[in-house]
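Section 3.1 - Work completed
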Amino acid sequence: MVIDIHAHITRTKTTTRENGRTYTTPAELLKIMKREGIDKAVLLPMPTPEGNHRIVSTEDVLEITAEYPDRFIPFCNIDPRAINNSENTNFLPHLEYYKQAGCKGLGEMMANLPFDDPLVENLFAQCEAAEMPVLFHIGPRYRNCYGLIDDLHLPKLEAALQKFPNLIFIGHSQPFWSEISADVTEENRNSYPKGKVISGRVPELLRKYPNLYCDLSAGSGYNAVSRDPEFGYDFIEEFQDRLMFGTDVCYPDQETPLTNFLREALERGKISLEIYEKVMWRNADRILSLGLE
């Protein structure tokens, strides 16, 4: 069993992004899943304008999932500015509706607002009440960027972990994963740093806060565990109950090097079969209450 915690989809082809590429359709995503041996994929809606060239709503994701219920797992997504653009907006009826419809979490949060913005904290509080895990993208700044804004060494994320102890946070993006190493700088935090890892903020936060989990998808997650493989193997072993495999597939021609990295780690005895299964599906099954055990 392999569960991808992070995939994107669009029902039909549309205009291209600035890089000339288009998002995957259901048929294209299923082709990638077959190629990589992925059994199920979490579909993440994209309702915010940041980071997108088109909106993909929760309703879109629910409709696609209904057509492929054995292959796709829906998340909902709500922009914290939605409805009233107020820190007092009541999102609970919407979260409960989506939960009843089958959504297993909320994300990917991409709004370009600080982690401690009252709008964001309002949504966090209501996700906590609804028992909906939140998968977030961190951005390093306001404007020319997307994702919840945090500073170097993630002080705002730590404050959120403290303030919402019963909310499962699932971390993702370059500014999140670059913090695996203590030598991250303001200049390289939104990239893919290379070289040996000096244990940094992400391991520290994982040790301190049991409500923090990690999405290993995209170049950022892959780079974090592969740039210094021996550190990566130790990191996976230590946090085996808090890591989840993902691809962040957006495009039909996208490569997913994490798949081979983890399979080779298993084949070479760098991680055990028990750890491999936790990362590849058992943690997602447990955290999202999928009932696959």
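Second construct:
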Amino acid sequence: MIACGQDERRRAPAFLVTLSAHPVLVILAVAVAAPLLAELPVSRRVPIVVLEVLLGIVVGPQVLGLVQADSFVSIMSTIGVAALLFMAGTEIDFGAIRGRPLTLALGGWVISAAIAFLAIGGLHVVPGVQAPLMTTIALTTTGLGTLLPVLRDGARLETPFGRMVLAAGTLGEVGPIVAVSLALSTRYSTWQEFTFLLAFLGLVALAAAVGMGARPPRLLSLLGRTIHASSQLPIRLALLTLAALFTLSEELGFEGILGAFAAGMVVGLATRGKEGELFRIKIDAVCFGWFTPFFFVGTGIAFDLGALTRDVATMLLIPTFAILFFVARGIPALLYRNVMPKPERLPFTLLTSVASLGLIVVITRIGLQAYHMNPDIAQALIAAALFSSLVFPTLASALLSRAPARVPVPRSG
């Protein structure tokens, strides 16, 4: 096998052999190519993260073999996960969705979890469907980052419809992250886990309160001055907060993703308003420009195309999971029948059914490592998430273009 691999490597064009020795160059080239492709003048833009995963498959061992899923890619991908969830946390603004939108979203997510649990229980008749808990959690996700451009481009972000979608998307991010962390916390007893979770959340709340309230003039002057210097102290403080809460979360027996998400919420709350605009631009550049491409491209590199075609049952799981995304997150839309006009209900169902590709990848990775999830199931879940990210927003946008937009409302309860 080794000799065969070496022969194939010698037969490959010289420039491809050269590129395969420089994985950072290849990954960053993909990171540039994805947004350029997303700018092509087509009727519906493909989400950049989907393109990053697809291009990662192309440069990975399944196609061109320019990058292998080795320890370096794995480490950088883990850092990319933390950065992605950190940035997701900074986007959460409970003040914008408090009141009825948040209440309905919470009820909807609980219903989604129940539906997903029953559906995965039914899938036990399919041989090889393992790790039902992790699969159940995966079906309750919503890709908030994918929804924002649809709402913004359709001028519905500040409308009642937009607030309902944002609330459902927020719970579709927060709920699965907390659920995964609790599901994997096996180091302590149940009561100890609950106590540690309360203590952790209390610490996060305290950090957020300090970040929002304690703003001594000398500290503000220092941060304002150093954000323009080579030290970039505010950015380093934010990354230290990320590392600290990530580590603390793991030490308490939870998944590090909970700490990363909490760190983002703390930093996001502390930098709200016009004063934090420059900081947010810079932290966006650091996380989305450098760290997260390693995660999404790395996901494509590690993606096993062969697993999808290994048998008929695995192939059928892709449309099955795509339908279950729609059912699990779509049925709770019935809760909104009295607060949402009929033309908006199906678009709402489609948008909230868009799976969070980032969270799906994280959940399947954890399932493979901790719960011995069947690799074929993991690949089918990722493929279904890609499908939902491509198809559901497109259909929702087409339907919304024919529905009258309601008047934007102020962000009050």
